[in-house]
């Protein structure tokens, strides 16, 4: 449990939205920037600007190494994963009749840009229903590829059910067909191993504020060597100021405007904390908590959980028969001081997949700082809610 500044003890179980609490190192790194060198990186030759630029360059290098990528200069910073995904999708040279293959578990940060391109450029999109369990029918997925398929985009892990997609197998398929492969790692960066080279990933997008334990307002797009994107933002880049067009070189081509130096420094500190804990240890811890939670919920009458049986992320959606999901979340928050999320979770197609479009679900999501004691308190609270309605 986390003691918040206003004195209320909160059990925070909305980690799939944003990780909390943050490591002390993140807070220290951001404070250090703001108090010691909050100058514009890459916009001057003075010492403070150089120091700011140095922390950003170091973060690029550390990100590239962590994700098995050989080109730190093609590590591009954005404001969040949504911005990274928009740049990746809208920056590709689509033409009328082109085809994109994706899944029914995609977040709106993938679906809405694709739907925008359907309207504005006349592309075609297939949202393949990959089912609720951990099974993935690669053969059926591959059959959806057409001669006009110009992109495969897949969410590595569902923010609704925790379903994990076999991105290594999908990457092999994409490479075999010579189709660019974009992975949305919003729920898996810092939790599951990702190696861009070995997994044949051409574009990798993720936020800094979830599994990487960094601050909000940070995101990253890793752009493979063979991928050429048209920037969706134009402006100052700190170099090549004489050009009337964006520079051709990365990362400047995709990084108009002043970068978020405090946020990027915090992101580096978050990554450092993740590496110190070890993603295998983080994954094992979250898996234990998830299994404990599911066992407890499944023993409560009128409660239904959704998602894979075993191989899943630390994300558990559930419903209570006859009770609105938002009402459950409000009771948990106001009466028990337990923070969860209710609704459609920005993935309406995912809810169609599991059959919860009409009522949504309550989503509990765990992180590295959650404890078994907290999970047991949540189970007890849900038991009390059920007893209050049906007892």
From TrEMBL:
It is an enzyme of class 2 (transferase). Residues 11-376 form the Aminotransferase class V domain. Its cofactor is pyridoxal 5'-phosphate. InterPro entries: Aminotrans_V_dom, Cys_dSase-rel_unknwn_funct, Cys_dSase_SufS, Cysteine_dSase, PyrdxlP-dep_Trfase, PyrdxlP-dep_Trfase_major, PyrdxlP-dep_Trfase_small. Keywords: Pyridoxal phosphate, Transferase. SUPFAM superfamilies: PLP-dependent transferases. Its EC number is 2.8.1.7. Gene3D superfamilies: Aspartate Aminotransferase, domain 1, Type I PLP-dependent aspartate aminotransferase-like (Major domain). Belongs to the class-V pyridoxal-phosphate-dependent aminotransferase family. Csd subfamily. NCBIfam families: am_tr_V_EF2568. This is cysteine desulfurase. The lineage of its organism: Bacteria, Bacillati, Bacillota, Bacilli, Bacillales.
């Amino acid at each position: 449990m986390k003691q918040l500044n206003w004195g209320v003890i909160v059990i925070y179980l909305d980690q799939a939205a944003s990780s909390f609490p943050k490591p002390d190192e993140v807070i220290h790194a951001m404070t250090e920037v703001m108090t010691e060198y909050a100058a514009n990186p890459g916009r001057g030759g003075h010492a403070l600007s150089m120091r700011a630029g140095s922390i950003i360059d170091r973060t690029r290098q550390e990100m590239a190494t962590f994700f098995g990528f050989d080109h730190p200069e093609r590590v591009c910073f954005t404001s969040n994963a949504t911005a990274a995904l928009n740049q990746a999708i809208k920056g590709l040279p689509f033409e009328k009749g082109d085809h994109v293959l994706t899944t029914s578990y995609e977040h709106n940060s993938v679906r809405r840009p694709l739907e925008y391109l359907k309207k504005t450029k006349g592309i075609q999109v297939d949202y393949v229903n990959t089912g609720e369990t951990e099974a993935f029918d690669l053969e059926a997925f591959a059959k959806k590829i057409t001669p006009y398929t110009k992109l495969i985009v897949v969410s590595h892990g569902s923010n609704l059910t925790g379903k994990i997609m076999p991105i290594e197998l999908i990457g092999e398929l994409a490479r075999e067909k010579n189709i660019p492969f974009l992975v949305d790692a919003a729920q898996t960066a810092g939790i599951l191993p990702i190696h861009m080279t070995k997994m044949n990933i051409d574009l990798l997008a993720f936020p800094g504020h979830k599994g990487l334990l960094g601050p909000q307002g940070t995101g990253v797009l890793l752009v493979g060597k063979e991928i050429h994107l048209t920037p969706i933002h134009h402006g100052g880049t700190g170099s090549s100021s004489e050009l009337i067009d964006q520079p051709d070189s990365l990362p400047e081509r995709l990084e108009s405007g002043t970068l978020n130096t405090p946020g990027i420094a915090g992101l580096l500190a978050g990554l450092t904390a993740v590496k110190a804990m070890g993603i295998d240890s983080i994954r094992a811890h979250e898996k234990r908590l998830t299994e404990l939670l599911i066992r407890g919920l499944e023993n409560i009458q009128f409660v239904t959980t959704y998602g894979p049986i075993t191989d899943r992320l630390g994300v558990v959606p559930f419903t209570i028969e006859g009770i609105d999901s938002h009402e459950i979340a409000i009771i948990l928050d106001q009466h028990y001081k337990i923070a969860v999320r209710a609704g459609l979770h920005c993935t309406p197609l995912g809810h169609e997949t599991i059959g919860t479009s009409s009522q949504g679900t309550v989503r509990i999501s765990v992180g590295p700082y959650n404890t078994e004691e907290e999970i047991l308190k949540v189970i007890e609270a849900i038991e009390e809610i059920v007893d209050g309605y049906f007892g």
